[in-house]
Known about the structure:
Largest sheet: 10 strands, mixed
Amino acid sequence: MRTFGPVIVGTDGSDHAESAVRWAADFARLHRVPLHIVVVIPTPIGVGFTGRLLSRVVDSLDRPAQEIADSAVAQAHESAAGLEVDTEVTSGPVGKTMLEYAQKAGTIVVGESGRGSVARGLLGSLSSLLVRLATCQVVVVRAMDGDVYRDSRPVVVGVDGSENGATAVEAAFIEASLRQVPLVAVHSWSDVPLSIFSAADVTSWYDETSIAQAVLGERLAGFGADYPDVEVQRVVVQDSPQEVLIQWGEIAQLLILGARGRGGVPGLQLGATAARVLRNATCPVLIGRRRDEA
C-alpha cells in the first residue's frame, strides 16, 4: 500500500545502515513523504547501571551518535535532494524503542545487520524483530555497491492466494507504478521442491497448474484497472516458494511479500516463506502489512 505516514529509518553508521538510509531517502521521495532518521543509544543493562552512572554512560555515547545522525542526513540529501529530513538521537531498549517509532510510521526501513559500535545490536536482531512485530510495512536493505537503488529491474511480488497476501500485491503495484518498471507476480502452488518429483509426476499436474493460474489471476484482478501503466508478468511454478522467490530476487530491484502466507496463523507475525527469503534475498525486501493486520 502507499505510504502516507513518514518513512523512518534506523542507523548505526554501518555499511548496511548507510545503504538503508540512502534507500529510505529515495523511497520517501518517491512517496512524497518526510524521512525521519533515528539513532538509538541502547541503555546498558547490568548491576550498577542506574541513576547518575547510567546518565554518564549515555552522555558519553551521545556525541558519536549525533555524528552518525548528521552523516545520515547528508547521505539522505545526496540521494534525494530537497527531501524533508529530520533526525532524533535517543536512548533506551533498542527493540522496544524502534517498535514504538513503527507505530508512527508509514514504512520503517532497516539494514540487514549493523556493526555494533555506537548502537550495538541496533541492526540485525532489530531487522528480525521489526519484520515480525512492527505495525507498519517494513523494508530490510542489504549493503549495496554504488548508489543504484532504482533502475530498469522489475519489482517482484510473491502471491500466495491468502487474504493477507493482497496487501503485498497492492504494495507491489504501487511500487512498480512509482518506479515505472514491470511487475513480476510469482505464485508457487507447492511447498515441496520440484526436484524430488519424477517427470511423469510433473506432466500429470496440468489441472493443478490451471487452478494455480486462476488463483493468481484472481489475486491480481482489479489492480490492472487501477494501475494501467504497470506491465505485469505472471509466473506460476510448482516448486518451493522460498527458492523461487530467492532466485527472482537476484534480478529484482525490490521483492515484496506478505507478512503471513496461506498457512499463516493469526498472532504469528512472519510466515516461513518470508523468513527464509529475508535471510537469503540479495535485493531489498518489503514486508507488506496494514495496521489492522498486525
